[in-house]
Design a protein that fits this description.
80 residues, alpha+beta, Alpha-Beta Plaits, four-stranded antiparallel β-sheet, 6 strands, globular
Length: 80
């Protein structure tokens, strides 16, 4: 089963918590975090991930103080 990460990049405050938790998926780009290998989604970005990458990205989402990272299952149900 694949999952989707959605990043509300315009509202990111650039604290880099996600980068610290999941550096294989997140990096800093100017003053905001960037979801590596993502596609544009409006003003934000999104990326599909596999089951094996779900937990580290849930941890990254939970570390975000402004809740701009969302992990969803294939049906679109928000997990975080």
């Amino acid at each position: 089963m694949s999952y989707k990460i959605e990043h509300d990049k315009p509202n990111c405050i650039g604290c880099a918590a996600c980068v610290a938790v999941a550096p294989d998926f997140w990096e800093m780009e100017n003053d905001k975090s960037h979801l590596k290998e993502s596609k544009p989604m409006g003003e934000g970005e999104q990326r599909e991930i596999e089951e094996k990458d779900k937990q580290v990205n849930i941890d990254a989402a939970q570390s975000c103080p402004v809740n701009v990272i969302h992990v969803k299952d294939k049906a679109g149900k928000e997990l975080v």
